[in-house]
Amino acid sequence: MDRNKKLRIVLLDDDDSIREVLSALLTHKGYEVFAFSKPTICPLLRLPECRCNRNQSCADAILTDLDMPEMDGIQFIKNLKKKNCKCRHVAIMSGCLSSGDEHKARQLGCQIFRKPFDSNKFFEWLEDIQKTVTPSRILCNWFQQLPQFTQSLQYQNSYGVMSTQPKLD
């Protein structure tokens, strides 16, 4: 993977084993991963508005589970879109996706992965995203804007957060 084009992925899943395995796989593939156990602790949801400038995005992809405590993945995506989140690639994963939820997810422009999902299709999706990313693209460093989040990265499992430590340029 071209290091100038390292994808940033925000991952949400309340199942520790799924979140940890996906995070480890994604990190091993060279992606920068911010993983959360529930939407309500994700800084992107907690920020009152999208902090990305017009030509920026918070991440290259957001992957969220559907069924999570306090808020489902569809509501999480809706909330981000209301804040004008500029992330173009969003996916919902679920082991029990109803036709109604599938319809809502598709209306939001989400890719859908049914659990257990085919890892080849998942990584093909990420590779397709990779092809659209230019080395000059700018990602917003939203995690730097929240001192409590940066501090929580040092205590990864205490807050349900598991992530590669971002490099602060």
Fold and architecture overview:
- The structure is a single chain.
- The chain is of the alpha/beta class.
- It has one domain: Response regulator (Rossmann fold), CATH 3.40.50.
- 33% of the residues lie in helices and 18% in strands.
- The protein is built from 6 helices and 8 strands.
- It has a 6-stranded mixed beta sheet with strand order 6-5-4-1-2-8, sandwiched between helices. Strands 3-7 form a two-stranded parallel ribbon.
- Strand 5, helix 4 and strand 6 form a beta-alpha-beta unit.
- The longest helix is centred in the C-terminal third of the chain and has 14 residues.
- It is globular.
- It starts with 7 loop residues before the first strand and ends in a 6-residue tail after the last strand.
- The C terminus is likely disordered.
Compact description:
33% of the residues lie in helices and 18% in strands. By secondary structure, the protein is α/β, with parallel strands linked by helices.
Topology, pairings included?
Blueprint: E1 8-12, H1 16-28, E2 32-36, H2 43-46, E3 56-57, E4 61-65, H3 73-82, E5 90-94, H4 99-107, E6 111-114, H5 119-132, E7 138-139, H6 147-152, E8 161-163
Parallel strand pairs: 1-2, 1-4, 3-7, 4-5, 5-6
Antiparallel strand pairs: 2-8
The global form is globular
CATH architecture: 3-Layer(aba) Sandwich
CATH superfamily: Response regulator
CATH topology: Rossmann fold
